[in-house]
Amino acid sequence: MMPQLNSEALRQACSREDLIRKAAAQIIKDFAEFGFEVSFSGDVDGFYDEVFKQMKMHIMDIMGEHYSQFLNFLYRIDVTETQVAVYQREMGDVSYEDALTELIIHREMKKVMIREYFKAQSQESKDDAPELTQ
Length: 134
Prior knowledge:
Strand content: under 5%
Structural class: mainly alpha
Oligomer: single chain
């Protein structure tokens, strides 16, 4: 059974240090592909605020200067403009950039959760496989 990727599952994942560190690494990697530097000090308690500010700055830059690159960026992150609009409506009185940044953090966390799920499934399959002898 696939992992739950709803808001509650994201909140639980955000309390796991290992997933936070992996999400930070994923964010750093994805932003670096577009020439944007995002750093993470390793302070899992301050993860959200630390990366949010950096990400938002880069998002505002790419939106204002290079719209076609911005669309490629959204595609790479696997976020659609429709998803951003839905997030913005759900979040209430926030800017497009804030909604997008929040959505990207959630999307990157989901990527990590899915990867962890399949890694665990692969490990279970190896553990359940009968040992071959010659």
